[in-house]
Amino acid sequence: MDHYETLPVVPLRDVVVFPHMMMPFVIGRPSSTRALEHALATAKK
């Protein structure tokens, strides 16, 4: 496999979130906010 991709990751404490799972969570760090905004802006639909 020669294909590499960078993915934004937001670590959550005591929570496991699976794909297509809807769950509210609170983020506070600026880096987490940027990662979430990037993920939403570039999500493959």
Textual characterization of the structure:
This protein has about 45 residues and is mainly alpha-helical. The chain is about 25% helix and about 0% strand. The radius of gyration is 12 Å and the shape is globular. The two termini are about 25 Å apart. The mean pLDDT is about 80.
The general outline is globular
Bin the helical content: 25-40%
Poorly predicted tracts of residues:
none
**Annotation field: number of helices:** 1
Chain oligomer state: single chain
Beta-strand portion reads under 5%
Structural class: mainly alpha
How many strands? Answer: 0
Described by strand count, sense and barrel closure, the largest sheet is: none
**Average predicted confidence as pLDDT:** 82
* Rg, Å, rounded: 12 Å
Q: Quote the distance from N terminus to C terminus.
A: 24 Å
Task: Write the element-wise H/E pattern from the N-terminal end onward.
Answer: H
In short:
This protein has one helix at 30-41. The chain is mostly helical and 45 residues long.
